[in-house]
Protein 1
Amino acid sequence: MSDDQIRVERTLAAWGRIEAWLKEHAPRSYRRLPAPAGEDEIRAVELELDLVLPADVRAFYQVHNGTGPAVDFDWSTGDKPLPDPSGYLLPDGDGIAPLSYLGTWYDHLPVDDEYDDPQRRYLPLMVSDPDGFYGSFVDCTPSSEGYGQIGSYAEAAFPEPGGHPSLAAYLTDVADLLYGKPDDIWGMPGILDGCLHWADPQAPPEGWEPVPQPKTP
C-alpha cells in the first residue's frame, strides 16, 4: 500500500469517528456538514493555483466540501445577519473552508520576498474566521520534503511549517481527543448552541456544556 493510500485510509477513518461523534452529540454541526466537492471543483482549484492537493486533503473534500456551509465563511454585509456558524468545529475554533474560498486566502498569505521560493505552494486550509488571516496551511510545494505537512500562519507573520505531518495525522489527533485522549493545549470538547465547541473547562463561554468522553471505538 502506498503512502498516499495509507493517508487516505487514515483520513477517512478519523473523519468517520469525528462525524459519528457529531451525529451523537452536536446535531447542528452534523446537520450543516456540506455535500462532497465534485471532482471538477477540486481540479478547478488545482488548475487555478497551479498545485496538486495531497491525497488526504483531496479525500476529505470528496467527503465534505468543508466543515460547514459556505455561508459560515462569508463576511457579513450588514444588510442581513448571518446565521451563527457551525463550521468552526475544530480545535482553536478552526474550520476547513469550502474549496471556493481557498484561492482568495492563498493570494493573501504573507511571503518573505528575500527568501521565498517561487515554487512554494502553501495553501490555507483551516481558518478561525472569514477573513482568513489566521489558520493552518497545507504544503503543496511539488517534490518538497514537506509536501502534505500542515503548518500555521498569521497576519503579518511568515508561515511556520511542520505543525502536523499530514491532514490525516491532524484529524486522527482530533478524533482521539473527542474520544477521551487528554490534552492541555486544545481544550475540552463540548456543546454550544448545538455545535461542537472546544473550551477551557475552567473558564467556558456562557451556555457551553461539556460532553462526557466515551471510550475510544
Protein 2
Amino acid sequence: MSDDGDSDICDGCIEAICCAFFVDSLGGKTLFRIVCAIVIFAVLATGFTLLVIAFVTRPVGVTVEDAALARLALANKNATATALAYDFSLAVAVRNHNWIMRAQHTAPLHAELLFAGAHFARVGLAGAGGLVQPGNKEVYHATAASDNAGVALGNAGVAEFVRESTAGVFHLELRVLGEVRYPPRHHLHRLHAICPLELALSTATSPATFRKVKCAAFS
C-alpha cells in the first residue's frame, strides 16, 4: 500500500473522530433541539411564502378559445366603403389565477371587433355579477351578425380590406372589456384585453382551423 493511501485513511479517521467528538460534546438533546429548530423554521418560512402568494391579487387571464368568421364583406362595393357585412362567433375564456379569491364581474363583459383599427362590431359575453372560481376558467360564447355595420375605414382601410379579402385571411383585433373585483377585497380592477386574430372565412362544409390565442390583458 502506498504512502498516499495511508495518508487518506488517516485523514478519514481524523474527520470521523472530530465529528464524533463534536456530536458528543453537543449532547443528544442539544442536537435534537437544533434539528427541530431548523425544521420548524423551514416550515414557517414555507407557510408564510404560500400565504403571501395566496393573498396577493393576481389579475385574470383572457384567451380566445375559438373564433369563426362566416362572413366579412363590404356592404356596398360601389362606395368608398363605410359599412361592412359580417357574421362571426366567439368563445372567450376568462381564467382566475388566484388560489383563494374568486373573481367577480362587477360590470358587463363584452367584446369589440376591429379591422385596421376601426371598430365595427360589439357583442356581450357576460353580465355583471358572474363569478370565476379560484384556479378555474369560465368560457363565454357569443355570436353577432349584421348586413350593414358602419365603420370608418377610410381609403387606406378599404384598400387593406380588399387585399386581405383577396388573400382569404383577415387580420382582426378583438378587445375584451369589463371590470372585476376579488372578494373579500372591494377594489375594482378594469379588465382590458387585446387579442390579435387571423381568420379565414369558415363554412359548414369547409370549416377553418383555429388555434387558441392568448390575449394581452391589462387591469
Protein 3
Amino acid sequence: MELVLVTPLLVLVLLVVVALGLLVEARMVVTDAAHQAARAASLARTEAAARTQAQRAASAALREAGAACTRPSVRLTTRGLAPGATVTARVSCTADLRDFTRTGLPGHVTLTGTAFSAVDSFRSSS
C-alpha cells in the first residue's frame, strides 16, 4: 500500500533529476561554444573578422551539439586584438523548457557561457 503512494513521488523526483542533468549539459554546450568563439576571434587579424568568425564558430558549435537554443548571441571583447591581449566571448541563448527537457515543462531558460582566449603575443601586428 505504501509503495503505491510513494511511486508517483519517486517518478517525479527522477524526472526532476533528469531535467537538471539536461540543464547542466546544455550549459556545458554553451560554454564550449563560447570557448570556440573566443578562440576563433583570437586568431583573426581585424575586429570585424573576429566578430564574424566568433559568430560562425559559436553557431556551428551549437548546431553540431544539437543545442535547443533559439536566437544565440555572441558578445565579444577584443581589446584591439593586440599581441598578448585577451579576447572574451560571451555566448547566450534562450531554450524552451518543453523542447529542452522533453518533459513538457512550460517556460524558458537563458543559457550563458563565457570564455577567454589570449591573442598570440608573438604574432606580427600587420
